[in-house]
């Protein structure tokens, strides 16, 4: 009888943890995208040009790339409870900074710093993995990601009305900061890192990811380059040759700083992993970094394309069908709205069927979906165009769910760092695809993403291995703990 009661208590606790965690993620996305629906009011207050607004949008995602890596390390070391609570407090302070910025320069600085808020996603990935067994983790991560991502859509639906009721956009933005501050207290008091009696495994070293072979070390070096390259592209977009928000000297200083940071990271990577060059890591402790790399590429295509398409889709509908901006915005919003269903579905199928095959099928659907979107023209019936968009978005977001159904199954004590790197690649994909979009028309843009989906599919087919058996984690006293992954 007591065993049944304990099982019931655990079941209630893990569901409560899921709701606590997705709501924390929801609030971070609500705060992160609280500027988008208030564009006209913000531009009018600061007399911003469209070029300056575009610069603000770029700055909003710039810091998210390195911050997801940093947050991944922090969550593995300090646990989700402390990390998420702290991030919510920081989010609220940055939100107030943005809401009451006195000048346009201050506004841009505040928006750049708010890119840090976008790293909240990484924290919940580790927390959900601690509470749900391997055969449920995909669905649970999908619910977490799907409902959390909906925070950006919720901001678009509610903040314009709230600003209208309050008579000032600043107050509407400030309220989102108050929400984050209040929920930081709730999360800290109610959330727990692990179920009662479970061990929270921490990495042996911090500063870089632990690697278990020489080949993986060089692959790790290679996979870090695109993240710095994406930040360099953002600097280039703000340079005198483009938006003109940065001077030529400042732009070159950023390039040099990024190169220096990469070299500094290489030094830390070597310091932490130099033993792999003269010592064979025991089989029980090994994992394949190639599994992280292919998930990076998959998220580059899935979440990266979602961020890029959501940014341009309203304008695409306006230009293609000559419809009103409000109507175009509502129809384009369906792409993000699919997160509520598609992402959990991708995680569910990954749990129930072979994870590698599930991801491959979803990437095929993504490539087909974007190819169909490339064919949309002014002669199409609008409902068919919208249905095509929804078809594509299902596979995009289900693919995201399938990716993060596998992230917790690689190496438990480094789940935060792995999630941080995979999540950062989503932002790298967004920067890449939006840069492509600045040079080509919409049809070619969709075809490029379709081709990227096929390329990712090939890498997954060649290099991904189906998670099987158990992964080993060593306790501080030397005891080995085995965790089922398939």
Commentary on this structure:
The chain has a domain at 1-200: MFS general substrate transporter like domains (Growth Hormone, Chain: A, Up-down Bundle). The model has no long low-confidence stretch (mean pLDDT 85). The chain is built from 18 helices and 2 strands. The protein has 486 residues and is mainly alpha-helical. β1 (470-474) and β2 (480-484) form a beta hairpin. It starts with a helix and ends with a strand. The protein has a two-stranded antiparallel ribbon with strand order 1-2.
Q: In a few lines, what is going on in this structure?
A:
By secondary structure, this protein is an all-alpha fold. 74% of the residues lie in helices and 2% in strands.
Key structural traits:
Growth Hormone, Chain: A, 18 helices, 74% helix
What string gives the helices and strands in order? Answer: HHHHHHHHHHHHHHHHHHEE
State the helix count.
Answer: 18
Q: Tell me the distance between the termini.
A: 30 Å
The CATH class of the domain at 1-200 is: Mainly Alpha
Tell me, what's the shape?
A: globular
């Amino acid at each position: 009888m007591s065993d049944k009661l304990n099982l019931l208590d655990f079941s209630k606790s893990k569901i409560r943890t899921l709701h606590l965690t997705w709501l924390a993620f929801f609030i971070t996305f609500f705060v992160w995208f609280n500027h988008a629906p208030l564009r006209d009011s913000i531009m009018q207050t600061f007399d911003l040009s469209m070029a300056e607004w575009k610069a603000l949008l770029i700055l909003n995602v710039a810091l998210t790339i390195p911050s997801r890596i940093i947050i991944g390390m922090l969550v593995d070391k300090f646990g989700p409870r402390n990390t998420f609570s702290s991030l919510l407090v920081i989010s609220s302070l940055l939100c107030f900074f943005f809401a009451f910025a006195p000048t346009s320069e201050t506004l841009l600085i505040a928006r750049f710093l708010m890119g840090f808020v976008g790293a909240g996603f990484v924290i919940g990935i580790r927390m959900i993995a601690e509470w749900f067994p391997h055969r449920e983790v995909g669905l649970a991560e999908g619910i977490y990601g799907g409902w959390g991502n909906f925070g950006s859509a919720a901001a678009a639906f509610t903040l314009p009305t709230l600003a209208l009721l309050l008579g000032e956009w600043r107050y509407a933005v400030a309220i989102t900061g108050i929400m984050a501050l209040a929920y930081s207290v709730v999360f800290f008091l109610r959330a727990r890192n692990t179920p009662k009696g479970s061990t929270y495994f921490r990495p042996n070293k911090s500063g870089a990811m632990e690697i278990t072979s020489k080949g993986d070390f060089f692959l790790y070096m290679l996979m870090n380059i695109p993240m710095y390259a994406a930040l360099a592209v953002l600097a280039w977009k703000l340079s005198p040759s483009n938006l003109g928000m940065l001077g030529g000297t400042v732009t070159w200083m950023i390039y040099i700083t990024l190169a220096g940071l990469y070299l500094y990271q290489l030094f830390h990577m070597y310091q932490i992993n130099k033993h792999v060059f003269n010592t064979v890591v025991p089989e029980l402790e090994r994992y394949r970094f190639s599994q992280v790399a292919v998930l990076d590429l998959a998220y580059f295509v899935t979440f990266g394309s979602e961020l890029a398409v959501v940014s341009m889709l309203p304008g695409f509908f306006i230009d293609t069908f000559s419809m009103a901006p409000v109507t175009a915005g509502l129809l384009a919003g369906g792409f993000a709205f699919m997160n509520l269903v598609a992402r959990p579905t991708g995680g569910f199928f990954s749990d129930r069927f072979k994870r590698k095959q599930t991801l491959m099928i979803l990437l095929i659907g993504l490539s087909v979906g974007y190819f169909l979107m490339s064919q949309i023209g002014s002669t199409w019936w609008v409902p068919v165009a919208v249905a095509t968009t929804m078809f594509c978005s299902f596979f995009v977001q289900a693919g995201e769910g399938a990716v993060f159904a596998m992230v917790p199954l690689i190496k438990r004590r480094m789940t935060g760092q792995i999630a941080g790197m995979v999540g950062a690649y989503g932002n790298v994909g967004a920067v890449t695809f939006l840069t492509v979009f600045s040079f080509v028309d919409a049809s070619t843009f969709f075809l490029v993403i379709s081709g990227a989906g096929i390329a990712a599919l090939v890498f997954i087919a060649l290099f991904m291995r189906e998670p099987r058996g158990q992964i080993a984690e060593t306790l501080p006293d030397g005891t080995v703990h085995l965790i089922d992954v398939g």
